[in-house]
Structure formats: C-alpha cells, structure tokens
Amino acid sequence: MLRSGVVMSLGCRFMAEASSAVPASAGVIASHAVRMPVGVLRTLERGRQTAARVGDAVWGEVVRAAEVARDAGPARRRRRVWSRSGRAHIEVRGLAGEGKRQERLAGGLESALAKLAGVRWVQVNTALGHVVVDAAKDGCDVDGLLDVVCAVEQAHDVAEQPFTHDQPGAAFDDVPEVLAKVALVSDCAGLVGTVVGWTASVGRLPRAVRVPLVVADTQPQVRRWLARRVGRAHADAFLATAGALVYSATGGMTPLVLDALQQWFKLGEARSRRTVWERREGELVADGAGLPRRATTPLPRPAAVPAGPVEKCAERTSLTALLGAAGVAAWTGSVEQAGQAILATVPKAAGAGREAFCAVLGRDLAQAGVVPMNPAALRLLDRVSAVVIDSSALCVPRVRLLSVAAGGEQDEAELWQAAQKVLSKRTLKDMAGPGPWAASGWRLRRRPDALDQRPDSLSGLHLEVQDVAGLLLGRVVVGCDLDPLADAVIAAARSGNRRLEMTQHASVAELLRWADHAVPASTALAERVRTLQQEGHVVALITCHDGEALAAADVGMALPLRAEFGRPAPAAPWSADLVCGPGLEHAWRVLSAVDDAHHVSAASARLSTGGSALGALIAAAGARHRMWGLTTSPVHGATFLAQIGGVRAAWRLARRPRPAGHVRGAWHAMEADDAFRVLRPLHHRAATVRMTSDVAAPTAFDRTRHRLAGAVTTAVTSLGLSAQAQHAGELLGAVREELRDPLTPVLALGAAASAAIGSSVDSLLVGGVMAGNAVISGAQRMRAEQALRTLLAKESITARRLRQVPDDPGQGFLGLLETVDFDPIDASDLQVGDVIVLRPSEVVPADARLLAGDQLEIDEAALSGEPTPVVKNPAATPGADLAERSCMIYQGCTVLAGTGLAVVVATGGQTEAGRAADLAGNATTASGIEGHLAALTQTALPVVGIGGAVVTALGLLRGLPLRQALVSGVAVAVAAVPEGLPLVATVAQSAAARRLSRHGILPRSARALEALGRVDVICFDKTGTLTEGRLTLTRLASTEEILPPDTEEAHRLLRTAARACPAPDAPLAHATDRAVLEAADKHDIQDPAWVRVAELPFEASRGYSASVGTDNGRPLLAVKGAPEIILQRCTTTLDPATGPPENPDGEAGSESRLVSLDEQRLAAAHRMMRQLADQGLRVLAVAQAALPVAEPANDDREQSAEQATSTAVATDTVADLAHDLTLLGFVAIADAPRPTAADAVKRLTDAGVRIVMITGDHPATAAAIARDLGIPHTQTIVTGTDIDSLTAGDRTTTIDQASLFARVSPEHKVRIVQALRQAGHVVAMVGDGVNDAAAIRLADIGIGLATHGSTAARAAADLVLTDPDLTRILDALHEGRALWASVRDAVAILVGGNAGEVAFTILGTALAGRAPLGTRQLLLVNLLTDMLPALAVALAHRTTATHATLTDRPAPALMGPDLARLLAIRGTATTLAATAAWQTGRLTGRARRADTMGLAALITAQLGQTLITDWRSPLVLATTALSTTALLTVVQTPGLSHFFGCAPLGPIAWTTVATSATTATLTAAIAPRLLTPTNPPTHAHSPA
C-alpha cells in the first residue's frame, strides 16, 4: 500500500509540472516559429548584398578591362592617375622631356593647380610626365584636378597629343595587373570550355589552327612588330587571350594550364608592385622637393643589347622550325604535317623559365620594399656582365676619421685621439657647417682650400688641427663610414667573373682595390656606362643621385639619399629601374640574383632545345609514345620544367639569409678603453637579436615542414637507422650535385629520343649510365668531404671567453690576465664584443682589439708572410698599416709568448682573412673532365646528327618509307652518342683521387684533378709553404767575415749565444732562442763547464736577453740581442789577427785577444750587420763580459766561487751588469726552407711548370730564399707597391714576366693570380695561411697545406696536402697528366669507334640502300667496344716507366690536334675494316651473313686498337678478351645470334674478319708514328 501511494504521489506531481510546462513550451515554439523566417530573410539579404558587391566588383573589373583594351594601339588615350589620402599623381600630355615649351607647361600647371582650395603644394615630375598635387585629405578632388589639367593642356596646345606606350611607366599603373587578370580569366575559361568539350564529346578544331598563334608568339620579329603596334603589355595579353580561345577550341588543356601559371606569376608581380608603391610613395615623394622639374632625354643605347641564352635559343629554334616545316611541306606536300612540325618545335620553354623567375623575383623584391619602376629591367639580369657602383652609395651618414698627418714633433697617435674627441658625437650635418669645432682643448678648422668640402665629398673633408692657442699641429681628413653590407655588395658584384667598376671616393678607398677599374671623378658616370655598353656589356648601376647614369644603365638601382646627409633629395630615383633602400640589402639581393638569372635562362634554353628536338623527332616519326614526366608533348613538358626551375630559383633567392654586416671601426686608432666602450654594447645588441629571433613565430609552412621532419626523424631513430639515413642523405645531395654535369642534358635527351622511337633498351642503357655516373661521382664527393671534415674537426679552434666582464674597464683588465674565470667555446660561437683570453701556443680565434697584455708575442706569418714574432701592446697605432697594428690580433695567427685580453671586433667571414676570400670571388668552377667532354660531345653531336640525316636521306632516295628511313637515321644517331663519356670521366677521376689519397693528397672534388694536368704555373706562398714557418740559425759571423760553422771561433760564438738563452729544460717562448739552441745541438756544442746562476729573459722594450753563470768557476755574463742595442753597450771586441785561444773549452784565453771597439772596428761591425740584413736575415749580436769575483766573507772562507757569484749577482741586477761588453760576433736567423722544397722546385721546373714565389716578406729575404731553392728567372722582384702603381694592361704584362713577388698583401696575391689567368695560364696556388685563402680560392687549382693554423687555406682549397711534403705536388701533377692521357685514349676509343660506326653505316646505306647495322647490333657494338674497354683504359694506372714522358710538359687541350689525329686514325681504320669484311660477305649474296661479318670486323678492329693503346695493362687485356669471347658467343649461338640480327659464321668468314681487323689494327698502330710531328716538347713559359 505504501509503495502504491508513493507511485500515485509521483504521478500527480508529474502531471502538475507537465501541465504548467505546456504553455511555456508553446511560447518558445511560437517564438522560434516567428524568428526563423526573419533569420532566413536576413541571411538571404546578406547573400544578396554580397552577391551585389561581387557583381559590382566583377562589373567594375569588366569595365576597367574594357577601358584598358580600348587603349591598345600605338598611342594611348587613357591618362594615368593615382590618388590616396590627400595626394594625387596625374599624367600630363607634353610634360615629359625638356625644353622651353615643357617649362611653360610645367609653370602653368603649378600655377593653376596651386590656386585650388585645399592644395598645399604642386610639383611636376618630368621624369614620368606627371604632376603631383598635395592637398588636405578632404580637399583632394581628383575630378576637379583633372578639369584643371585638361584646361592647362588645352591652353598650351597639347590636348590632342596622345600618350605613347614608350613613355616611362609608373609603379601605380594598374594596366599590367588588369591585363594579367584578363589573360588569367581567359585561360581559366578556356580550361572550363576544354573540360566541357571533352565531357560532352563536342567536336574540336584541328590543331593546325594553332600554327598562326604559335608563330606570332614565338617568332621574335613578329612579336616585336605586334608590340610596336599595340604596346608590349597589350601584345602579351592579346596573345594570351587568343591562345586561350584557340587552345580551348582545339582541346589543348596543357598549354592553357602552363599559360595560366605564367599569368598567375605576372599577376602576383603586378599586385606587389602597386602595393609597394602605396607603401613607399610618401617616402619617395616627401615634400616634392626631390621631384625632377627638368628631365634629361636619355641618349639611345650605343649598341644593341647582347642576346642572352633565351634570345639565342628563340632565334635559332624558330628559324630552324620554319625551315624544317618548309622542308616537310615540300617533301610530303602536306600543309598539316608542316604545321605539326612547327607546333612540335615551339621554343616556349626558354622564355617561360626566365619569365617565371623574373615574375616571382619581382614579387619578392616588391614585398621586401623594392619599387620596380621598370619591371622589364629584371628580364635583363641574365645578361648583366658589368656592375658600376657610385661609391657614395656605399656610405652612411656617420663621420669617420680617415687619416692624420702630424706636423713637426707632434705625436700622431695623440693627434688622432685629439681629432677623434672633437668628432665624437658630431653628425654629418654638423661637420657640413662652416666650423670650427672644438673639444677638450683641441680645435678643428677648415683648410682655406676646403671651404666647400663635406665629409661625404669625393675627397673627404680636409681640416687643420690646432691647440687652444691656435698653433697648427697637423692635418686630418674626415669622411663617412661605410654601410655594413658594402663588402657583401662588392662580393656579389664580383661573382661570376663580372667586371666591377667603382667611382673614386676617399671614404671607400679601402674597397677600391677590389674594383677592376676606378672611375675618376672627371669622368661622367653616364659616359662610363655608355662606354661599357659600347664594349658589349650589359650594365647594372647603383647610385644615389646620378639620374642621367641611371637612365643610361640597363639595370639602374637607385638608393634614396638619407635625410641625415643634410642634402636636398636628388631626382635620381625617378630615372631608375629599381628603387631600393634604405641601406644596401636590396641592392645586394638584386646583384645576387644575376647569377641565378643566368643559370635559369641557360637551363631553360637547354630544356627548350631538347624539347624542340624531341618534338621534331616525334612529329617526323609519325608516332607518339607517352613518357613519364611529360604531359601532352615534349615542348610542354620542357616548358613546365623550366617554369618550376625558375620559381624554385627565385624562391631560394628570396630565402637566402641576409649577409652579416661588417662592423667597421678604426679600432687600432682608438684607445683600448674607448674601443671596448664602443664594442661591448654591440655584444648585448647581438644577444638581444638572437633571443628575439629565437622566439620569432614560424610560418605555417615552416611549422608543417618541421612537424614532418620531426616525425621522420623520430621514425628513423626508433628503427636505429640514424647513421644510415644521414649517409643516404649526404649521398643523395652529392648525387644531385653531380647530376648538374654538362653531359646530363645530352644523355637525358638521348634516352628520351630512344624511347620516343621505341628503342627502350637504348633508353634504359643511357639512363642507367647517367644514373650510375651520378652515384659513383656522388660517392667520391661524399668520401672526400667526410675526410676533409674529419681533418678540419681535429684542428677546430677553441676560444676562452671571459665570463665576468667589467662594465668600466679602466685598468681592471690588467688584473684579469691570469684569470681562470672563462668559458672554453668554439671559435664559431664568438660574437663581436666578447672578451677573450689569450695564452701561449693558442691560435687566435677572431680579429680582436688588445685590451691588456703581458709580454704578448704573436706569430703573424700566416697573415703577413713574415716569420718573426710580433710584439703586441694595447697602445693605439693610428694610421698604421695592417701588419704594423701592434694593438690588433688577427684570426689564424698563433700566440708565441705572454698573455693577453682582447675584445672581439670581427668573426668568421668578417675577419680580415674572411673578407679577403669573399671579396676575391671565385674562379670559374672547374668543370672537370666532364666539362671538356661535354664540349667535345657538343662538337660531335652535329656530326652525329648529320650522319643520321644522311642515313635517312639515303634511305628515302632508295625508296624507303619516311618512318622507316627516319627510324634508321635516329638509331644511328642515338647509338653514335658516346654515352660512356661521363662514366669514363668519373671512374678515371675517382681512381686518380683514390691513388692521391694514398699519397697524402686529399681531393675535395675529383673534378679538380682535370686542371692539374694542364697547370703550367704554380704560385707558392713562401712562409710556411716553401719554408717551414720557423726560424733557424743560418749564418755565423765575426765583425769582419762569415765564419765557417766547423771552426773553433764559430763554436765559441754559438756557445755564448746559447748561454744567453733560457735554460734548455725551460719552456722556450721565443723563436730566436729556439733557433739558437737547435743550432747548438745540431753542431754538437758541449758546454759542461757552464753553470747558470741568473738570467734575464728577452723583452721587446729591452731588446736583449742575458744570463750570468760560471765557466770553470769564472763568472761571466752572456748577452745576445738587437745589434743596435748591443753595440751601444760594447767597448771591446776580439782581435781577428790573433788566433783562437789555447783553451777552446774555456773563455779565459780570449782576454789576450781583446782590442778596443774603435770607430774603424765599429764601422766594420755595422758593415757586416748590413751585409747579413741585406740577405733577408734577422741579425743578433752576441757579446760577453767577465764579472769580478766577490771576496768571501771573513767568517766563511770556505765558500765556493759559484756560491760567491750567486750571492754577488742577483737576478734583478743582471740588467745592471750589461755594460762594457766584448763583441764576439753575429748570428743570423732566417725561416728555413722545407727539406723537400728545393727538390720539388727542380722537378716541377723540369716537368715544364713555371714556379712563382709570392711572399709578404722583405725583397732581400725573398731573393735569398729563391736562390736557395733554385727558382729560375728571379732577377726581377715585383713588390706590392709596384703592382699598385701599374695600369691594368701593364699589370698583366709585368706579372706574367716575373717569378718573384715580395711585400705583397692578400689582395696583391689575388691580383697576381688574376693576371696570370688573364694571360692564358692555368694557375695553381699553394699556401697554408689565412693570407693565402683568397688567392687559393681564385686559382684554377687551390692547394692547401695541413699545417698549424691553416684552416682558412684548407677550406678554400681544391686539394689538401695532409703531409706538408711539397714533392707530393709532383705526384698530383703526374696523376693529373696521366688522367688526361688515359681519358684521351678512352675518348679516342669511344668517339673514334662511334665515328667509324657512323661512317660504315652511311657507306653501307649508300651502297646497299639500307643500313647494314640495326639498333640492336649498334647496341652490341657499344657494349663490347665502348663501355668495358674504355673503362679499362681509363682505369689503367700509368707505370713509373712512363713517368718522365707524362710530366715533361703540361697536358695539351683535349680538343686539340692530338685527339683529332687519334679520332681520324681510329675512325678510318674501323670503317675500312668493317667495309672490307662486309663487302666480301656481300659476294655470297646473303645479306645477314654480310652484315654479321661487317659487325664482327667492326668490333674486332676496335678491340685490336684498344689493345695496342695499353697492352701492358692486365685490365685492358682482360676486358679485350672478355669482349672477344662475348662476340663469339653472340654470333655463334643460334638463338642469341638471331635476336641480335646476326648469322653464325664459318671458318672462311672468320678468317676474312680476322684479316680485315688485323690489317686495320696494324695500320692504326703505324699511322700515329707517320703523322705525329717531330717538334720538341713545349716547356713552361720563361719570363723575358
């Protein structure tokens, strides 16, 4: 009952709540029912409004497109107008140009428009033919402005003048964007129509309808005519729109897709151009003061723009296509087939690749802030061959002290500091004033002849330095600082062997040495540009203010003048093609794009040529085989690949990181504390930038890429395949580099051609050879790079970075010299502003300014070429040359002694060594044997093509069908392509590289070996390369004569010098001490009686070292040091007329020989000192003095003499004893030649190589070393000063005639290598130091020695000698020349054999009406006679018996008379053998048997000639036997013989074959002896 009550109660409650909820629910439902229609109506209304807006926008676009279309024609009627927020640019008729009429029109415009309400100012821009009006935001009524402009035009009778298409364009003009949209929409509509037509099976027009359009689009003459009629932009749009219609009607989807891609790129470029204009218009126009009121009419270009790869390809292919189509029409009588021939050979890929690159590049530049005033200039980048830089564009508005000339007894350093204090915190505007300027008791005032000078003037600002009393103390020159990217811009300009010219400018003097020509101030820049154009150059120009030069240049880049310069804004940007800046980053990126543009154009032209050739082949064959990677035709496939290549190149360029700026400063001229205060904030700023960049948000693409990379890395790691994956990635990268081989396109074309005619086997063979070549070469490259990385890793430089750096240095750094509070880090992690600790035997990790030092000595031989230690101290050295800046330390040098603290001023590529290497640029990349073989192939290919054409023509004349005749011709041509060439080159180079590696020579790339065979000049650095880079004692002399080292007097002199050195068991801090002690040990100088008591180590400020000791109980003082110091302390010397002492082991006997050092003897000593110094030797004087014996104390009479001396002479009193000395003589020290250097020089000279020695050392030292080494023709010594004083032409002649260069800098070494290469030599540069890196990089072959501190040299080298044995260079030379000989023989086998095959096929076709060899038989010939035998000859290592003949002269050019003679002999012998056997076989009447006999004789004759090439090689014998066995097997095996189109032969037939082949082989063996000239071998060039 209770349970039923509860249920009833719950039921009643539910019913009550439900009854109360029903009205509420009904209300909600009713509310929704009312609101739902309202929401739907609102959604519909929003949709209608959106559709209306879209419709209006579309209609607006249609109307705008119609307006633009109506404006097509030789003259424009539409006015260009742009307006935004109170600013309007309006095009005016008759305003562009110059003259009185133009001036009256400009004045009338400004006067009439200025009267309008709200107008603030009006200025004309005659460069563009515009008037610019600035008004209040609500006062810029464009319609009203246009009415006034029209009225003024009417008043000046110019209202009827049309606007021409040749008139300069404006960045805000929307016509390019509208036309790109029209073309893109047309292509999309065409695609839709094509798809609908396919789906609905609508009939299509014949493809011949496309021919007129294709001719108009690809024929340069037709396109130029059309552009003149309607304008270039309209012509492009017209052709694109017509193409969309025609291709849609003929079912051409692929060309529509390709053109749509192209229009998309153009649209992006046009939009970005308008966007950047709107962003930078206010900056460029400013207040209108910089707008040009008078425009100079540019003169016509003095010569036509040289054709680039694209133009040459278009001209060549289009003409060939028309001639081919005419031939097809004449032969077949079919216009349709002629039209198909034209369509199949369209050279569209060449222009498409460049256009895609330039469009994407233009878009990216605009997004970065470049205003493309003339986008057509980007299309000339691929032809730029000269760069002219107005040096003022490299300056920034920051004053800099350039030079100081002290007067009288005034200290130059003090004067520099005084001038620096006056200039501190002064701006360029301040220094442009009248002056004077004063600070801290010093005053700078203008010189009377420099009243109009400014720091940014060409000659700088010349000032006088005065004290408070007005006394003249000296003169200074003030200039501007350089932009941090100035070095990067110059490096980019010099890249690719382009000519660089710069205007003379005082502030840029340090960079002018890298220019090929310095344009004097008296020469107008525009005139120089036109001169270069007349010489055939396409000129790029960078300037800030020269509008006339910008108008004359082909690619003019303007940098707007910064307001801080305080000059009126120039009108130059309006004449430019590209408005860059501020700063040099944009200019650097444009110059960096020149190389990429050339590569893209060249690659696109190659693709176009290949696609056209394949298209012609397919059209002529009458069949079409679809291939992977191509769409509907080879031409379209090539176009797509060219577009992708261009876009990828532009994409990589846009993402190329900005180069690190070079932080400039006269650090050596500043006091240490001042330099630290300037540099330390740069460290904090760099750290902030690094932190900011670390947290920068990545893009969506970057995030996706990183996620995918992370997932792949995790998967590979989990499988334990990390090492394998890393090696595979390295190999793939190396293979990708190898596929850039010049022969790769040729082989790919051959493979595609084989596949196109149905010969899949040939296609697979050629493709396999290409892939195998890339894998083998890539593996060799990878191994070499891994070995080099291992070598470099062993000698990575570690830096000690100070952990706690005081904020205010003062004298605090002296107390930190012995600190251990530092972090050891890799040198690559250092930043400008870091403070580093220096310790003995360490390599300096960066360029740095010394803050404090304790007896610090640096070995700067790697930088200056002088092996002597350089004493360093923190004192400023203003005005000093690089090698004389004692307060600076440089990367790659070695600490010899002492300790120091220094603040980093430059790291990595910004150091002196790194900048020199980057600014020097690169030599033309060694193409290796492949490059020469590619040139040979390009020469042979026309001959092969002609052979195929002859076979085809002969077949047609004999009545064969066109397709069959064509297939025969193509088979011959494809089979005759020497596809084994790259594999032969790769294998031969790899084998030579492996052999060199076993000899301690590491090739960074096997391709570098090819230049070794042709080297005829080797430039050697002296210090550390020809010499050991350490001092050794070479001469001993008395005051009057050189002492033989085995005399008693020489032994005493050397013994005393050794006594003056530190104890032998103590660390030797000085190289001179080490040299003396090593010499004493070498000559077995024993000194058991000497007991050292005290010593005084060498210090630069003192100039000598000394020691006190006893000799058999007699106290003596031994001293050695600088002669000018020691001679002042000497009063006596030894009488040379007296014989040696009776007791040679002691020194007591010498007292009887003492004589006074009078004026006569002192003069003799000075003569001997100069005689030694003139030989380039470092001279030390040696002296001694007998010390008194102290009397022992009365209470200790038993004290020994040694103890007495020790007590009487304390260490700190040794210096006081160095007086009244006895001069014993001189020791001379020099950098010792390497033991193998003389032998290497002799053997290289005997091998026909000219030896050149280059050193930064003294000329006398250089001459002495050259004589010791036996370097010939060193009578004339050329110094760096001599090189600087010569003109470019005289410099090349002088350098070519000299073999010894002294006192040269790294820049001079670069000039020497450049001049030798310009003189036609193949140059190798051998070095070990940072000062050699630039020249090593520029040489044809750079050779680095793996010595201490030579990382920069090895990194720039092509070959690295892991063992500094210079005779290894001869091994490398031998391998290079042997490589050339092997490859020459292999080429003779491949090309000569193929020539014989082609000649035999042509001859057989002419005689029998058909080709005697088919495709499979030709393939068999290639397999048996080309691949294995040629590889065997290339791999066969030349024996030592032939060493002399291989190295008696540099290898001749591959494509020279020697090879031509071999090819002629081999081809003729092969042809005669095959023809004789084939003709004999024809007498039987059985064609297949005759063909087989010809085939067998052809193969056997080639194998016989291969055998006589190198019959001593087991590998050649084995491959010859293997090929012969294979031939017998193929011919005599029934089934296999039938497959290859052969027939088994009997004994008579084989006898005939053997007789023919043997006769041909013997003829080929005898012929070279009869045809070879008997001229003696040509040796290296001997200077006149």
UniProtKB/TrEMBL annotation:
Q: What InterPro entries does the entry give?
A: ATPase_P-typ_cation-transptr_C (IPR006068), ATPase_P-typ_cyto_dom_N (IPR023299), ATPase_P-typ_P_site (IPR018303), ATPase_P-typ_TM_dom_sf (IPR023298), ATPase_P-typ_transduc_dom_A_sf (IPR008250), ATPase_P-type_domA (IPR059000), HAD-like_sf (IPR036412), HAD_sf (IPR023214)
Q: Which PROSITE patterns match?
A: ATPASE_E1_E2
> What range(s) does the Cation-transporting P-type ATPase C-terminal domain occupy?
1411-1565
Instruction: Kindly state which keywords UniProt assigns to this record, in alphabetical order.
Output: ATP-binding, Membrane, Nucleotide-binding, Translocase, Transmembrane, Transmembrane helix
Q: Which residues form a coiled coil?
A: none
Q: Which reaction does it catalyse?
A: ATP + H2O = ADP + phosphate + H(+)
Write out the ranges of the annotated region (Disordered). Answer: 1133-1153
Return the PANTHER family for the record.
CALCIUM-TRANSPORTING ATPASE
Q: Domain P-type ATPase A: where?
A: 823-919
Q: Where is it mostly found? A: membrane
Query: What's this protein's name?
Result: HAD-IC family P-type ATPase
Query: Subcellular localization, per the record?
Result: Cell membrane
Classify the protein's membrane topology as the record does. Answer: Multi-pass membrane protein
Q: Which domain of life is it from?
A: Bacteria
